[in-house]
Amino acid sequence: MQTTLGRTLHALGLTLVILFTMFPFYWMVTSSLKDQSDLLASPPVWLFVPTLEHYGEIFADQKVVNAVINSLIVSVSTTALAVLLGAPAAYALARFEFRGKQDLWFWFISNRMISPIVLALPVYLLALQVKLLDTHLVLILIYLTFNLPIVVWICTDQFRSIPKELEQAARLDGANQWIIFRKIYVPLGIPGIAVSAIFSFIFSWNELLYALVLTRRTVQTAPVIATSFMSGYELPWGKIMATGTVIVLPVIIFALLVSKHMVRGLTMGATK
Question: Which residues contact 265 (CB under 8 A, 6 or more apart)?
């Protein structure tokens, strides 16, 4: 009886948490499908005839299309670089002992402790000095500085969980350090690499402050364009919600694609 009651309460609690977390997304999507009269209705209209008018408006606006493309370029490039640079660094931190290792580890972690607003002005002045304002490169570099520690942090813990005996066996077979990393640690570390890639992509895709400070018109990202719809005289909630939905969808698709590799990575191991 107690077991049944506990399972029921557990399921009820999970259901409430899921509803609480999913409701904002539901509200955004449904609002993007309502016409202006339904959007401003009080009390809210729950049953309505969907319309794609707002999506037609944002996709007809070349600025929105360019902003989504810019976000994709910056986010994908940042994620790829963060994983390519962070995974080998995490392997070195997980398996080698060298002078200054703890200081380097603390430096990686402390990068996430700094508030972005503190660095916004210095980064702007530096980008202005080297003439990188309003370029993809400046966003990729600044995003890399706070995404690389995440990859290193997650992958280091993942690599530490891999038995050292596998590496020792590979050395006895004549494998060098690069082959050991590529053939053993990368396949067995896929879950951690996938999770770090998801976080890196999400943080890059959703970042607003640096994109707002370091871009003008050419390289504006999707979050910047979404905020540009707001003015003191008009709030086009339909366009804002439609843009928000378009911004969220690539993150969801990327997470779903990478989750397959996470599951595959969990089934790969020394016993395969």
Answer: 187, 188, 189, 190, 191, 193, 194
137-162 residue pLDDT tens: 999 999 998 899 889 988 888 888 88
Q: What percent of the chain is predicted at pLDDT more than 70? A: 92
Instruction: Give the closest residue to 124 by CA, choosing from 112, 115, 132.
Output: 132
Inter-CA distances, 250 with 72, 201, 255, Å: 9, 10, 8
Greater confidence, 133 or 6?
Answer: 133
Cα separation, 185 vs 167, whole angstroms: 9
Q: Rounded distance, CA 185 to CA 178, Å?
A: 10
Q: What are 31-50's pLDDT values in tens digits?
A: 888 887 787 777 887 888 88
pLDDT at position 272 is 41
Domains of the chain plus CATH, in order, are 54-266 (1.10.3720.10)
Tell me the torsion sign for CA atoms 267, 268, 270, 272: positive
Tell me the C-alpha distance between 147 and 142, whole Å. Answer: 9
CB-CB contact of 189 with 162 (8 Å): yes
> 180 with 171: CB under 8 angstroms?
yes
Which of 261, 248, 82 minimizes the C-alpha distance to 189? Answer: 261
| φ/ψ (deg, to 5) at 180 | -60, -45
**pTM as predicted:** 0.81
